[in-house]
Amino acid sequence: MKRYIISLTLLLCVGTVGAQTQQEWRDSVSVLSQMIERNPRDLTLRLRKAACNIELGQWQYALDEYTYVLETEPKNMTALYYRGYANHHLGRLSFARKDYEVLLAVAPLNSHALMGLIMVNLEDKRFTQAFDDANRLVEQLPETAETYAVRAEVEKAMGMIEAAIEDIEKAISIEDAVVKKKYPNSVDDDITSYQLTAFALYIQKHQKDKAKAALDYLVENGVPRAALVDYYAMLNFK
Q: Which residues, in sequence order, are CB contacts of 17 under 8 Å at separation 6+?
């Protein structure tokens, strides 16, 4: 989910996708704030500023901008999604849940809103609802790695370790095929995260050979072994 969020907020904030420093984000916020002072009803400017606020972790400022937009356009899908995202980061789980639910009422097939809702309910320990929605997500997007990874997180929290292993291995298989087509002998952030999730699950099931294989995969594909030294050390514990 994070990869999608970064690319979309970049587009909203500066109009192009590219690396930005924290100072450049702050400069963008400053410029957009001045433009909003001159054009307070311009919702596009407010969405762009809120996107920059998110990149800076300024959750309350982002929430305020999205709330302003939604007071004018109650079904603005961008504002609903990202206000839910900001609410989640502020720990306002019931408000985040409401935003995602309203968005799903407008766009029932919006997978990002559904993922957001699942993660909110997971954090709020509403495991049954999270699991039902995770199954729905997989049915909706059966060829997408992230959907299986999300369900694995829910299953892990519910103590369904074998099911979680099956799903995270499916996510790795899908993502690996995608990445290898473009970048042989390398990994992206997603597959690194998936392999480390698999590692933790293998450790729980005392499957040390598989746990080591998950780490070795990352090293073989460009992750420095030094970055994984603590994980390798865990293999020595009984």
A: 7, 10, 11
Whole-model pTM: value is: 0.85
Q: Which two tokens stand for residue 203?
A: 């450790």
- State the average pLDDT over residues 82-103: 98
CB 158 within 8 A of CB 167: no
Note the pLDDT of residue 10. 46
Mean per-residue pLDDT for 109-132? 97
Mean pLDDT, the chain, integer: 90
- With a cut of 80, say whether residue 15 has pLDDT above it: no
193 contacts 2 by C-beta, under 8 angstroms: no
Res 95 pLDDT > 80: yes
Which residue ranges make up each domain of the chain? Answer: 156-238
User: What SS3 string covers the chain?
Assistant: CHHHHHHHHHHHHHCCCCCCCHHHHHHHHHHHHHHHHHCCCCHHHHHHHHHHHHHCCCHHHHHHHHHHHHHHCCCCHHHHHHHHHHHHHCCCHHHHHHHHHHHHHHCCCCHHHHHHHHHHHHHCCCHHHHHHHHHHHHHHCCCCHHHHHHHHHHHHHCCCHHHHHHHHHHHHHHHHHHHHHHCCCCCCHHHHHHHHHHHHHHHHCCCHHHHHHHHHHHHHCCCCHHHHHHHHHHCCCC
